[in-house]
Amino acid sequence: MKLTNINHIFFDLDHTLWDFDKNSELAFREIFANQKLEFDIDEFLEAYVPINFRYWELYRNNSVSKEALRYGRLKESFDALKFETLDSTINEIADDYIKYLPNNNHLLEGSVEVLDYLSKNYMLHIITNGFEEIQQTKMRNSGIHEYFRSITTSEDAGVKKPHPQIFKKALEKGGALPWNSVMIGDNLEADIIGAANYGLKPILIDPANKFPEHDYLRIEKLKELLIYL
């Protein structure tokens, strides 16, 4: 069933369009090879992924700074693997990760096809909690930057999703109104509940069925957006 009276579509970026997990793994592989750190990358990622997720929740809730996030997620991951390294090395890896991450360009399946289709009928925008200095680079390097009329980051807005101010800022930048806008993202609290509370129509992308109990539109793959838009 198609959503009606929609003119604007707002997307989250990481885990929604941009394949964060794959691109992050590639960045770490290159960094660890350059650092000559010898341990199993899969074991590292098994430890790192949930720790990184937890740190992003803390960052979203203003419980840690950006600097604490960058250092702490690596420090705790190395500690979990009982891998001893200097703080200076951790800080160097943290800096390299921000440099290397946007150099990888993998998108989630169907991203370009869906953006190409939707851009013919809607104005497209980005709302992201990701760091200002790398989000636009990610989009340019992956070839999707030109699809979007506006890009609103949490650093630009001064608050993070799900705070209503970031949605207010994004709508103003995009020339949109809540009632004629859709928000698409992978995080139930930040993207979906945050958008719904501000009056946008949300669609959750949830390929692993992490959020089985909620009342919002849900898709497993981006191509399913075409059912509603």
TrEMBL record:
GO molecular function: 5'-nucleotidase activity
Family matches, as InterPro entries: HAD-like_sf, HAD-SF_hydro_IA, HAD-SF_hydro_IA_YjjG/PynA, HAD_2, HAD_sf, PGP-like_dom2, Pyrimidine_5'-ntase_YjjG
Coiled-coil region list: none
Gene3D superfamilies hit by this protein: HAD superfamily/HAD-like, Putative phosphatase, domain 2
Source superkingdom: Bacteria
Protein name: Noncanonical pyrimidine nucleotidase, YjjG family
Species name: Christiangramia salexigens
